[in-house]
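Notes taken during the Thursday session

The instructor put the following on the board and asked us to keep it in front of us for the whole hour. The protein is Transcription elongation GreA/GreB family factor. We were told not to look anything up and to reason only from what is written here. First, the residues (153 in total):
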Amino acid sequence: MSVAFRRESDEEHKEPKFELPLPAGPNLVTAAGPALIAGKVAALEAAIGAEGEDEAREALKRELRYWNTRAATAQVAPPLEDGVAGIGARVRIKLNGRERVIEIVGHDEADPAADRLAFQAPLAHALLGAEEGERVDFGGKPEAIEVLAVEAI
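Then, after some discussion, the predicted structure tokens were revealed:
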């Protein structure tokens, strides 16, 4: 039998496990961000200690490496200027005739279902630097968003 058809073990044919991808750019967070990341690290460390299965433990360790990197690189965003949207701002807007309140946060703090958008998300990015009363271009439409109010979270 040819060497090409011989299989030494099942391990050599598994897909490689790559590290979790890190978002591009700086790891800016709100003032609450470092505590949130530390909580994730602590929870993962506890889960790793309690996990009995090797494959599941390796997956948890992989996730822990991601969160340790995020903790090491986290930078609290500079304080907001009064009335200017930025990281750590709650912004009330009018888009397509509908009012909406979003919070602009760091990537790891984002929860789009709860209208907590990462500063790199298209809508949040369009609002960065916008002031109360200003109209902002979005989605290829000029002045699509009206900024009604801006306050710190």
